Prior knowledge:
Number of strands: 11
Number of helices: 0
Amino acid sequence: QVQLVESGGGLVQAGSSLRLSCAAxxxxxxxxxxxxxxxxxxxxxxxxxxxxxxxxxxxxxxxRFTISRDNxxxxxxxxxxxxxxxxxxxxxxxxADYGNWYVSAREKDYAYWGQGTQVTVxx
Length: 123
């Protein structure tokens, strides 16, 4: 069983930056960040392989967000720059039960989920 604990959310102004962290238990596996905007379905944001060598981003965040990991700390990060009001959402960390080069954007490929952290971007 993998446990995930997110932190780093908050209220910021448009154009600001935030860094989300996700502390994970267990071995290094593929990880992802998803988000659920108010009144909308949850959507993929970014993912990376167990080694950190492969990454994949949603078009809406490409060039602004960076996903990374520190396997020594068993922690995954989401650096969010140039935040926009439309980035407002509950952000979820997710872990697959496998580790390889292929990074999935599908929720069903992630077996474990954190409790979520709120990010609010004001205009």
